[in-house]
Write a structure and sequence with these properties.
Layout: H1 2-24, E1 29-31, E2 37-38, E3 49-52, E4 59-61, E5 67-75, E6 86-98, E7 105-119, E8 124-133, E9 137-141, E10 145-152, E11 160-161, E12 166-175, E13 183-186, E14 195-198, E15 204-205, E16 218-225
Parallel strand pairs: 2-10
Antiparallel strand pairs: 1-4, 3-16, 4-13, 5-12, 5-14, 6-10, 6-11, 6-13, 6-16, 7-8, 7-9, 7-12, 14-15
Length: 245
């Protein structure tokens, strides 16, 4: 009986923690459509194609990015990229909007490519194992504005098979000071099972769980490649558990 009661109390505490975390993440949006996107750092050369959410940025979700958290976007490479066999990830992009009160800001961040695992219960593609990751970069924003935070992935990504579903991720290693939290950015097409956020309570759907007005703007530049890693003899670990479409 004591074990049962302890289990119930633990469950209630977990539910309360998630509920409190959800309350801390309040959706307040501002229209940003039409603002010019700035790219800090050297100019990024575009590659053969792009994958991810290439829609127009429309909404700023005010003061959303707290730091010490992660963001993910599910994508189908075939939806936006016409590489015949595989793609080699080059640079990962995430849009962030900085108000006058948010700058100057310096933060550490890295991006990665991850497997997507299909969940039969929810019918969603969920975050899976990391395939490859960029180095950790230190980014400094001096002036207010809408920014494309572009992170070169480096040489860690092998040729990825076009037939699978993947996720792009951004991991913020730094907490933003209170009152200086930048805005996350979305399109105006809210779709479940596409955008995720983990700020300590596990991966939650930004549209379904938080009521975002669209999906997060994350995408990547890629080169076509001829010899994608397959599900046989792969060094990627769980890649053979991916579902082909």
């Amino acid at each position: 009986m004591r074990t049962l009661i302890h289990g119930i109390l633990v469950t209630l505490c977990l539910l309360l923690a998630v509920s409190n975390a959800l309350a801390d993440k309040e959706v307040v949006i501002t229209r940003i459509e039409g603002l010019a996107v700035q790219e800090p750092g050297p100019e990024i050369l575009r590659q053969d194609c792009q994958v991810g959410n290439l829609n127009t940025p429309v909404w700023a979700i005010n003061d959303w990015i707290l730091g010490n958290e992660g963001y993910k976007l599910v994508f189908d490479p075939m939806a936006t990229c016409d590489c015949p066999l595989g793609f080699h990830l080059q640079t990962v992009h995430m849009l962030m909007n900085f108000g006058a009160e948010d700058v100057p800001a310096t933060f550490d961040v890295y991006a990665d490519l991850e497997e997507a695992v299909f969940d039969e219960v929810s019918g969603c593609w969920l975050p899976g194992a990391e395939v490859c990751a960029s180095p950790v970069y230190s980014v400094t924003i001096e002036t207010a504005g809408l920014y494309d935070i572009s992170l070169p992935i480096g040489d860690t990504c092998e040729c990825a098979d076009m037939r699978y579903i993947y996720l792009l991720s951004y991991h913020f290693m730094t907490a933003f000071p209170a009152g200086m939290e930048p805005d996350a950015v979305s399109d105006d097409i809210p779709t479940s099972c596409i955008s995720y956020n983990d700020f300590g309570s596990g991966w939650l759907d930004l549209v379904t769980d938080f009521g975002w007005p669209g999906n997060i703007i994350m995408y990547a530049d890629a080169d076509c490649c001829e010899f994608p890693v397959s599900d046989e003899g792969s060094t990627w670990g769980g890649v053979k558990n991916l579902y082909r479409r």
